[in-house]
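Incident log, structure service

09:12 report received: a user says their structure output differs between two submissions of the same chain.
09:20 pulled the input from the user's history:
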Amino acid sequence: MFISNKLFKLSVFFGIVILFLVVYFGYLFFEPYLTQDIITIEIVNKERFGSEPSKYLIFTPDEVFLNENNYYHEKKNADEIYPMFTRGK
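09:34 re-ran on a clean worker, output below:
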C-alpha cells in the first residue's frame, strides 16, 4: 500500500525532523520574551561572583539572583546596574 512505500516513510521522517527543528528554534527565539518577570525584591547583600567580570550575586531573604551579561538574552549592562542595587531597598 501507500504506507509501505519507502519514499513515503522517508518523507514523513524528514517532515517530523523539520517540524521538530522549527519548534525548537522557535522556542529559542521566543524564550527570552516568555520568561521575563518584573518583581520587587528587598536586597540583603550583594557580592561580586569570584573573579569573573560582569557577574554579581544579589541576595534576598528568599532567594539569590545572578546579575550577569548574557549575550543570549542580549543583556549587556550588568556593570552599569550593579551600583544601583542598594541594601535594604
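09:41 both user submissions now match this output. Likely a transient worker issue. Closing.
09:42 reviewer note: The chain has a mean pLDDT of 84. The chain has two domains: 1-36, 45-84.
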